Write the structure tokens for this entry.
Amino acid sequence: MVSKNTICLWYDGTALDAAKFYAETFPDSAVGAIHRAPGDYPDGKQGDILTVEFTVAGIPCIGLNGGPHFKHSEAFSFQIATDDQAETDRLWNAIIKNGGQESECGWCKDRWGLSWQITPRALTAAVFDADPAVAKRAFEAMMTMGKIDIAAIEAARAS
């Protein structure tokens, strides 16, 4: 990889599957080099896929097949800005329908346990509106949602 800073994500033998899913789902994403272990290691054998280089929405990542020892948590997430409801729905549904799970306020988890924030730009603009009353209404509307409903956010903003 060319990048000086790369996100390393831990997987239990499924880094290539995850990288392929991300590349198929998110724009400006791709699977890069696949590196095989030069020798046996605690959770794998020589020749197993050890790391996978990939990008997610232009961010360089390495998937490390390190075994079952460490799990993803909400302490790390990808936040993906969307331009409209169709894009929001497509990304959210892709994650959920591929074994993921819904959460609140635009958050969801993929089947590997990695957290995603599918965040419409309209939500960000509303929650950080210069008028504190508008921002509060938008924020309160967001707090009732799983997947973000842009029309409902805009209605809260306008009311």
The longest strand covers residues 49-56. The longest helix spans residues 85-97. The chain has a mean pLDDT of 96.
